[in-house]
TrEMBL record:
<feature type="transmembrane region" description="Helical">
    <location>
        <begin position="12"/>
        <end position="36"/>
    </location>
</feature>
<keyword id="KW-1133">Transmembrane helix</keyword>
<protein>
    <submittedName>
        <fullName>Uncharacterized protein</fullName>
    </submittedName>
</protein>
<keyword id="KW-0472">Membrane</keyword>
<keyword id="KW-0812">Transmembrane</keyword>
<feature type="transmembrane region" description="Helical">
    <location>
        <begin position="48"/>
        <end position="71"/>
    </location>
</feature>
Length: 311
């Protein structure tokens, strides 16, 4: 501990310092008082040393008192600093968990947009095929697979979010956080994600096959199948047509495994309640009710997405 926070050390330092610097002035003053003013018979040196001792004692008291107050203030500031640091950590953990949950919901809700776009291009491709519009047909096919590529990337992006959420949620609860965290959409039905894409891919595959049986459509296909990639993650349109189904199926399978393992981690992280939370029953009841409300809202949003995907 620093001397300024040590009452004994600070008292000795100040007391001895005052005694040292006041010794000569006291000697001069006492000499004048003794011989000129008082003309006393009191022992000269005993009184002088008593005065010096009194100054030393006074300095020790003042130094100790000052150091005690400084130490108490320093300890208070340290407690406040630690509490502020704890609150900052809680805020960062809460924001991290909230951001992971929001990103997951946004990503899941984006799936219906990607699939709707792909379905629109597929419908256009069917119309162009019936009307014998060769180049527009293949442009629509490219658009459909490009949208399915976005669908695929969204599923891949979703895989990283459960772990991030569980980590932040665990930090928040271990730090004493009591505010209900936004729930993570770990209950999303991955079978719906795979089935919705699979249905559209079978339709697109049938269209491409029928077009390749037509000499003119097939000729344009040969011109476009190896052109620069139009679908992110695939070297060419031909690769996208041939491999998109397997890529989406693999990503959906990986996502299902990730969510299965992450759901227990998320539940454990969110379910951790510290001693201060357990001590306040009303807070626990209120937090539980709010958590249930948030979960119901989330379930409704996920159900709406799943209905759109299977429509």
């Amino acid at each position: 501990m620093a001397q300024k926070d040590n009452p004994v050390g600070a008292g000795l330092t100040l007391g001895l310092g005052l005694g040292f610097y006041s010794a000569l002035p006291l000697l001069f003053g006492w000499t004048v008082a003794y011989f000129v003013v008082l003309d006393s018979a009191a022992p000269f040196w005993q009184v002088y040393l008593g005065l010096v001792g009194a100054v030393v004692a006074l300095g020790m008291l003042l130094g100790a008192s000052s150091a005690f107050r400084a130490g108490r203030s320093a300890r208070r500031h340290e407690r406040e600093r630690k509490e502020q640091a704890r609150r900052d950590e809680l805020a960062r953990a809460y924001d991290g968990a909230s951001r992971a949950a929001a990103d997951a919901i946004d990503t899941i809700e984006s799936l219906q947009g990607w699939l709707a776009t792909a379905r629109g291009h597929a419908a256009d491709a069917g119309a162009h095929f019936r009307n014998g519009a060769y180049s527009p047909f293949w442009s629509a096919i490219e658009g459909a697979y490009a949208a399915l590529g976005g669908y695929h990337r969204a599923i891949q992006a979703l895989q990283a979010l459960p772990g991030a959420y569980a980590g932040h949620a665990g930090e928040y609860r271990r730090g004493g956080g009591e505010t209900p965290l936004p729930p993570f959409p770990s209950s999303v039905d991955t079978a719906v994600l795979g089935a919705a894409a699979g249905t559209l891919l079978r339709r697109l595959g049938s269209l491409v096959y029928e077009a390749q049986r037509d000499p003119v459509f097939a000729q344009i296909w040969e011109q476009r199948r190896t052109t620069a990639a139009v679908v992110a993650g695939f070297a060419s349109l031909e690769h996208a047509v041939g491999r998109m189904g397997g890529a989406i199926a693999a990503s959906v399978h990986d996502l299902a495994g990730t969510l299965e393992h992450a759901e227990s981690a998320v539940s454990a992280a969110v379910g951790e309640v510290n001693a201060s939370t357990r001590a306040v029953a009303a807070t626990v009841t209120s937090a539980s009710a709010e958590s249930l409300r948030l979960q119901r809202v989330l379930n409704e949003r996920i159900a709406a997405v799943e209905r759109q995907l299977t429509a």
